[in-house]
Design a protein that fits this description.
mainly alpha, Non-ribosomal Peptide Synthetase Peptidyl Carrier Protein, Chain A, two-stranded antiparallel sheet, 5 helices, 68% helix
């Protein structure tokens, strides 16, 4: 059982997956910073200074009673945090786009590596020169015998 586990761990696919998860976790922090520090201020600029990450609704109460979403959560009030949800959607879309671009680049590199470099030129599929000469010879024999 232990040897099987060692074989499983030693396989390249498991190691590739582990590296992917670690890189993905590090990339999530970068994307969160991109959205929170760069994209949200731009969106706030176009929406008249509204920072949508602070959008929240208090369920069963008045949101005006709380200065921020954190204050409402500390008070133990049920909060509908729509701004966080919007931020999560933006994060997902950015991560999905970057992963799409990475996969596209890897597939392009794979296809370039698999393509044989010295491909023979395509041969025309018509009759060869020899076939034409033999046909002329046969036709000349028929004409001389007739």
């Amino acid at each position: 059982m232990i040897n099987e586990f060692k074989d499983f761990i030693a396989k390249g696919n498991v190691m590739d997956m582990a590296v992917g998860i670690i890189i993905g976790a590090a990339f999530t922090a970068i994307v969160s910073s991109l959205v929170g520090d760069l994209i949200n201020p731009i969106i706030a600029l176009f929406t008249g200074g509204i920072d949508f990450t602070g959008w929240f609704y208090v369920i069963g109460g008045n949101a005006a009673d709380y200065a921020s979403i954190e204050a409402a959560e500390e008070a133990g009030v049920a909060v509908f945090a729509i701004g966080r949800f919007i931020m999560a959607i933006i994060n997902f879309l950015i991560i999905a786009f970057v992963v799409f671009m990475l996969v596209k680049m890897v597939n392009r590199a794979k296809s370039a590596a698999e393509k044989p470099e010295d491909v023979a030129p395509e041969v025309p599929s018509g009759p060869s020169e020899l076939d034409i000469l033999l046909e002329i010879r046969d036709e000349m024999k028929k004409a001389n015998n007739a």
